[in-house]
Automatic annotation (TrEMBL):
Signal peptide: none annotated. This is Zinc finger protein SNAI3. Residues 49-58 have a biased composition (Pro residues). InterPro entries: Snail/Krueppel_Znf (IPR050527), Znf_C2H2_sf (IPR036236), Znf_C2H2_type (IPR013087). The lineage of its organism: Eukaryota, Metazoa, Chordata, Craniata, Vertebrata.
Length: 287
DNA sequence: CTGGGGAGGGGGCCC
DNA sequence: GGGGCCCCCTCCCCA
């Protein structure tokens, strides 16, 4: 399932304004966990309370920090728009502004969103033939058969894992939506919202250049740009990369196959972004 | 205009 | 519930 389909939004998400967030970070205190890195990481003190039932969150609009809203919907599934009104609240996350629509071309769409798999799953190969760890991680049990999805019969090792999975079938069956005050995105769980809020508060700060990041591991990756560390090496040409995703993209250059093809001129591209740019420059002029 | 690297965003899963 | 790690994806830049 495309990650974009896991969250609703009222508008295209934009990159947070680092400048506007600077003042918030200054008010935060340091986090010892991230202090061990080059930068500092502050737990977002504006995060919501641990329980939605807390009457007064420790933040408010006057402190210019995030907040959640709890719509009083007895059956929130209606608010999801699966069968109910509020179509303006159910628009899927689309391409960013200025970006050619490319949803049907995304890698994610080449994968069946919800596979019905046997209890003992065979290796799942992605479009490039590599083991698709995303699908495996989503449902592969260590002790198959302990818990099974009533919808697709996927086995799950833990009840928690099954519960999370079943939200894909019945999102927000009776619970409230958690809405980010910054961008109005809605999330099914408080934890997901907390994670999202970090993308606004950017609590992890590089001590070298002052740049802020939402998560410590993003900061770690950034620190490699200062240290020059490149732990990921291409097995074909021994070229090293600081980021695993970039190595993966590089491996496509060795694959010799171009997965993305222009529907008009049939020209193939190794990356979706190249195809999108190809469309933007006029091969496939839109209406 | 294309190919590719660098850097980063963001959500999911496991522990 | 949080941290770590995974993944896909995007933008920017340069050759």
């Amino acid at each position: 399932m495309p990650r974009s389909f896991l969250v609703k939004t009222h508008s295209s998400h934009r990159v947070p304004n680092y400048g506007q967030l600077e003042t918030q970070r200054e008010a935060n205190s340091s986090c010892s966990a991230c202090e061990e890195l080059v930068g500092s990481c502050h737990p977002p003190d504006e995060e919501p309370p641990s329980t939605p039932s807390d009457p007064l969150p420790p933040w408010d609009s006057t402190s210019a920090v995030a907040c959640i809203s709890l719509p009083l919907l007895p059956h929130h599934g209606e608010a999801l728009g699966a069968s109910g009104p509020e179509p303006q609240k159910t628009s899927w996350v689309g391409p960013r502004a200025g970006q050619a629509p490319s949803v049907p071309l995304k890698d994610s769409f080449t994968l069946p969103p919800l596979l019905v798999l046997p209890t003992r799953w065979p290796p799942i190969l992605g479009p490039d033939g590599a083991l698709d760890k995303r699908l495996r991680a989503e449902g592969t049990p260590r002790a198959p058969g302990s818990f099974e999805c009533i919808h697709c019969h996927r086995p799950y090792h833990t009840l928690a894992g099954l519960a999370r999975h079943q939200q894909l079938h019945c999102p927000l069956p009776a619970g409230p939506a958690f809405t980010c005050r910054y961008c109005d995105k809605e999330y099914a769980s408080l934890g997901a919202l907390k994670m999202h809020i970090r993308t606004h508060t950017l609590p992890c700060i590089c001590k070298v250049c002052g740049k802020a990041f939402s998560r410590p591991w993003l900061l770690q990756g950034h620190i490699r740009t200062h240290t020059g560390e490149k732990p990921y090496t291409c097995p074909h040409c021994s070229r090293a990369f600081a980021d695993r995703s970039n190595l993966r993209a590089h491996l496509q250059t060795h694959a010799g196959t171009k997965k993305y093809r222009c529907p008009i001129c049939s020209k193939a591209f190794s990356r979706m972004s190249l195809l999108a740019r190809h469309e933007e420059v006029g091969c496939c002029p839109g209406p």
